[in-house]
Amino acid sequence: MPLSIASTLKRAAGPLLKVPTADGAAGEALLTDGDGNLSFGNPVPAAHNHDGSYQPLDAELSAIAGLSSAADRLPYFTGSGTAALADLSTAGRALIDDADAAAQRSTLGLGTAATQNAGAFEAAGTAATAVSAHEAAGDPHPQYLTASEGSAAYQPLDAELTALAGLTSGANKLPYFSGSGAAALTDLSAAGRALIDDADAAAQRTTLGLGTAAVEAASAFQPADAQLTDLSALSYSGNALKALRVNAAATGLEFASIGGGSTELDIHAQSSTYAQQASDLGDLIDFDTAGQTLNLLAAATAGDKYFCWVRYRGADTGVLTVDGN
Question: What is the pLDDT of residues 60-98, one digit of tens each?
């Protein structure tokens, strides 16, 4: 008969357990309808769909499930329903992710020779064998050089020579090294060649047309001076007596003829004792008689930079006394 249980006992409809009871035959199950109502009976198996929750049983998957995974390990099948692990390095992953064979050759760093057949190359040792045979044959092919002949006839490969070989020569151009294994060209004129072929510095000074002053120190020469420049600009002619004086504007030097006049040196002829005057500044006091005395102007009267010229032109040897007053 039906068995009623409190509605708090609920679960999905189906068998709960099998018990032999007075109300049910042995082997019958205690059933629930999902609403808390129980009864004994034989449950009708319902169709089950576990596709969304379980993987169907598979021999290959079971074989993989039996492996123990680890870093850089790749599962692979060793037979039907059997699997194992192989090492898979970073380099290996970089290779197997390439899109095609060309990309894989690039990953491996291969050159274009990698896709050539073996017949495209000489077998190892072929060249050496041929050279040995050639040398052993007593030079049957004089157009070819033996190894020793080649060493004697050719310059060994050199970075500096390669750099020079890369230049384009031209007229009046000189090659020079601009760095390690690097070269460039610079201009070299006829004058430059005439200078660099001299044996020493003396010969180079001669080529340059230098005089003996070229090797002297600066202290051996008179420094530039405005007064010296003025002197070098003066010129005169004839044999007239000239005196050098400051010009009237006091801006430079000039020659003055001795004889009188505003632009010449005034001569004050004297035959007896004479007292120098302030107006004698820059003039010539000219004595023609011996034994005379020149009384100089007091310094306080003459002032700074006062000067004059004094001459004795008498025929006889005489004495002129200068009195400092």
Answer: 889 888 989 999 998 999 999 998 989 989 999 998 999
- pLDDT (tens digit, 9 = 90+) per residue, 187-243? 999 999 998 999 999 999 999 999 988 889 988 888 888 878 877 877 776 656 666
Pairing state between β 82-87 and 73-79: antiparallel
Tokens of 289: 């008689």
* One-letter amino acid for residue 24 of the chain: G
Phi, psi dihedral angles at 258 (to 5 degrees): -85, 115
Rounded distance, CA 310 to CA 259, Å? 14
CA separation for the pair 187, 54 (Å, rounded): 88
Q: How far apart are CA 129 and CA 314, in angstroms?
A: 120
